[in-house]
Amino acid sequence: MTLNDATPDFVACLEAQLPEKTIGNASSAYLEEPRGRYFGQGGVLARPRSAEEVSTIVKACNSAHVAVVPYGGGTGLVGAQVMPGDVRPVILSLERMNTIRAVYPLENVLVAEAGCVLAEVQSAAQESDRLFPLSLGAEGSARIGGNLSTNAGGVNVLRYGNARDLCLGLEAVLPNGEIWHGLTRLRKDNTGYDLRNLMVGAEGTLGIITAAALKLYPRPRSIGTAVMVVSNPQSALELLAMSREIAGESVSAFELLHGQGMRFVQETLPDVRLPFTDIPEWSVLVELGMAQAADAALEEIFGAAVEMGLVSDGVIARSDAQRQALWSLREHIPVANKAIGSVASHDISLPLGAVPAFISEAGAKVAQLGPYRINCFGHLGDGNLHYNIFPPKGETREAYDTQRHQVSDLIYELVHGFGGSFSAEHGVGRMKVAALQKYADPARLAAMKSIKAALDPNGIMNPGAVL
Amino acid sequence: MTLNDATPDFVACLEAQLPEKTIGNASSAYLEEPRGRYFGQGGVLARPRSAEEVSTIVKACNSAHVAVVPYGGGTGLVGAQVMPGDVRPVILSLERMNTIRAVYPLENVLVAEAGCVLAEVQSAAQESDRLFPLSLGAEGSARIGGNLSTNAGGVNVLRYGNARDLCLGLEAVLPNGEIWHGLTRLRKDNTGYDLRNLMVGAEGTLGIITAAALKLYPRPRSIGTAVMVVSNPQSALELLAMSREIAGESVSAFELLHGQGMRFVQETLPDVRLPFTDIPEWSVLVELGMAQAADAALEEIFGAAVEMGLVSDGVIARSDAQRQALWSLREHIPVANKAIGSVASHDISLPLGAVPAFISEAGAKVAQLGPYRINCFGHLGDGNLHYNIFPPKGETREAYDTQRHQVSDLIYELVHGFGGSFSAEHGVGRMKVAALQKYADPARLAAMKSIKAALDPNGIMNPGAVL
């Protein structure tokens, strides 16, 4: 498929169909991404206010074979939001579609436009004494449409699922410009193919999400948070199983922490308080959310774990401030990583039972490649590790940049061998297109290509992403 | 698309590629369905033992343009398992693919072949001290592949979700005969389009599920069950909200019962014990599953509900036998319905907040059509009602059969007006194809047709179902 530039004539024609100032030029902010790996050469910026305006824009693009790059908060980590190359696309930002359309506390449903910032959705839920549980580092700027398009994860997936699991219905503009009015608030609706889940996670290649009906939950009244020291990842897994035996679905976060991450924080962020004087090699942050007495359940878990020899030390937060301090440590680990500068980062997932063997084998194999430092941390409850590799102390990532692909290939091969995934929560974007081609099941990949061709025959939607 | 008969030559060619006795003739058991509305004229029965054999069969059918009708337990309620008409299809039964391939208790995952009976999957989970929460009336004969293909619901959806939500990965044969090896046990895997959820709920029209990786849960140690009398559906909804405030996700079932259903049970099944001497017009069966003290939580809910005037009477089960007696009442309501004989049955869902207004308006409108008896019951926690309409006492359904479509049209129009669905958990099958054409969003319906044409260009997979 050959795509055409969004020419001045095309733009003039588009402007004539839309309210004033809907169309403009894309500033550099729309042409960069956080990893600093992809850059757009320019483009037309469209900032529609309604699904109807999105439809007008997409219809025009489809008919003129002009590329459309959907743009949410710009926080994606795999380059799905920036299209490099010489062809001038329409960058369609959802930022003006930022209304919470309705909250239904009795139904535990909230309807938000795609441009709502995630933190605003959380706040709107809280104002109705409800919880919208999607929570991740970029929540202050990520927009819910992007969260859905990338099927975002974060720290509460163990209990509440990914963005996919929190979505009941969608309003979306398909690649032919037609509006799908699918903002259902139904919990059950078995009437044909699941278009909702096809749009969620498609990273803007099958259409543009313009609004979503989202699931809310009762707010747990009692929250208990602790960091517990474990001797190794296997003990951490056994602690997870025991925690769920005792507290069931109340286990809402179970985050693996590694000594290397704490040392990075100590080195680069001296104001962040560490819970232990001697940095432990492995520890986990556990959080329970219950109707009442979460601390008592946490004490029970801690006591039983010590007795079974799974846990050697721990800190249970005794106040909101202490709870926030424990989370602050967890949340500053990526900040410290960035300050140190990784040679290669990996957002991988594994069958839960394979995590200990993977960590052990990967460590040994990376050591053979060079004197790297490894920070392996993340959402252990979901089998999702952020496996990041850093240069030796005193050296810079640049010195090791030539080895980046070799390191990543090693990790991805190992992950694949264990039945894991090369992208747990970040998506494919443009960064992992080659990995998808390499590791995806061939029958599934062929089906994906058929679906893309069927729904977007002109290939206008976010070309170069995913496929 | 013209489809061809499975001719003797075709069968001979197929037999040559498969082990002996894989192919035979379909007995009448494979040509009927529980509603008694659809009948097959005959067909070739294929009973493969592996995904490879399924692949061989589907490839042959695809190349010869012979229809394939996937067959699980045959318990579906919308006719998806039986193809009427003169063309002789291959009926592909999964009954021999009935192995539990593996259980991973630490990971809370079980891998089952599609032909496993649902109750066997539940038992295998229980043997590992885990819960597979999908539970429905036909669990003794329904097979898990069919449960997934129809995205089955049942009594635990409120807490654990539909079949869709319980599935981590699939092995499936696509319409071109290629095997998709997607039996992942991963909780997070953001690597492209969600083919899994496209296959789930497609009712065998996009391929054949041959095995699934399923989610298990810790078994709640303490289960509390009660039936509480409420003054009306609105009170029932408020009771639901309050129960979830107190017990969070522990509320695992919340079933609406109607006096008419209890009277039907009294009339047709005198051995089933009713919990109240005076049959209440509205009541709910509430179940909590907790780590401990579920009865105490249930007492707390009951006490608070009485104080707020939501509940006027109730029975809390004090033993396993009492608990089973309460469930037995709930489970015998469909049996009693069948004995009475409905004029029209509806498996509908509504936004939770719209349930009271719907029940009130529907009752008034049905009364205008005739002196019908209405039994409105079901999974209120999910907004899913079974809204069944019966002839007046002493008369037979046959006398009212001419009004069946008029009654259903009235109900579906009303449901649609409230933003509800004409099929909450049973699917579309062949029975609701016209309703789908009438009520589905046009953009979505067009996308569904594109996807069907892209993945099954010869239209061999379960023709006449869904689309």
From TrEMBL, chains A, B:
Pfam family membership, one: FAD_binding_4
Keywords for the protein's UniProt record, in alphabetical order: FAD, Flavoprotein
GO biological process: respiratory electron transport chain
Gene Ontology MF terms in the entry: catalytic activity; FAD binding
Cofactor(s) annotated in UniProt: FAD
Taxonomy, superkingdom: Bacteria
PANTHER family: BLL6224 PROTEIN, D-2-HYDROXYGLUTARATE DEHYDROGENASE, MITOCHONDRIAL
Record's keyword annotation contains Isomerase: no
Organism, as annotated: Shimia isoporae
Gene3D superfamilies: 3.30.465.10, 3.30.70.2190, 3.30.70.2740, Uridine Diphospho-n-acetylenolpyruvylglucosamine Reductase, domain 2 (3.30.43.10), Vanillyl-alcohol Oxidase, Chain A, domain 4 (1.10.45.10)
Family listed: Belongs to the FAD-binding oxidoreductase/transferase type 4 family.
Start and end residues of each FAD-binding PCMH-type domain: 38-219
Full protein name: FAD/FMN-containing dehydrogenase
Xref: InterPro entries: FAD-bd_oxidored_4_C, FAD-bd_PCMH, FAD-bd_PCMH-like_sf, FAD-bd_PCMH_sub1, FAD-bd_PCMH_sub2, FAD-linked_Oxase-like_C, FAD-oxidored/transferase_4, Oxid_FAD_bind_N
